Hints:
Blueprint: H1 21-32, H2 52-71, E1 73-77, H3 83-97, H4 111-126, E2 131-137, E3 140-148, E4 155-162, H5 171-183, E5 191-197, H6 201-209, E6 213-219, E7 230-237, H7 238-244
Parallel strand pairs: 4-5
Antiparallel strand pairs: 1-2, 2-3, 3-4, 5-7, 6-7
Amino acid sequence: MGKADDPRERGSFVRPATTSPTIRRARAGEARGDVGGVTTSAKHRRVAAPTRAARSSSLDNMKSMIELAAQRLAIRPWQANDAPALSVAITESIDHLRPWMSWIATEPRSLAERQSMIARWEKERRAGGDMVFGMFIGAVVVGGCGLHRRLGPDGLEIGYWVHAAHVRRGYAARVAAMLTSVAFSFQEIGLVEIHCDRANHASQGVPRRLGFALVGQQTKPVQAPNETGLQDVWRVTRSDWMRDA
């Protein structure tokens, strides 16, 4: 998986609260008995039939919820039927990704090769190995990411790449936060790291924004055109992440 995003991506990231304001308001409404616009009391439980205006309002609200869900960034494992869209996303982003992503040298791949790769990722994930995910806004592929078992039994390394048409929107940081929380859902994981070339300022900005600590540098073979061979190592521990949650 790649470790870089667009060099111009900047901004601030705020980790969402465990319980959203919408959910908190809904729970408060349940306590008052006015959830969904239906009023109840301790003595009377009869619910009046919704009016035509109420039904229309509910349909409008449902449409808004569906539209909002389609705009949300989500991650999930790649599926075989994602292969064409993944191939298109990579093809459209080759020039953007080539400076930092060594795996771009193996592109383009055939559809059969892509499907075989997705099947291998699924097998590895189910066997407890690397976890490779797609990044989506609705059905649109906006990038890829993963958790990699390169750090020993108690650590996971985050990787990510963003489609060229979707950079500078904070997606890399949001996904890295999601992946960090996923990583610490495994009881054996005590630390999460992000490794990025010292010249890749965009990738360094992601762990910095999330509160990771720069703990050192390490050398690695140069495999992509803009790499220097020296990586910064950013780390967050379980206790630090959970304390700030």
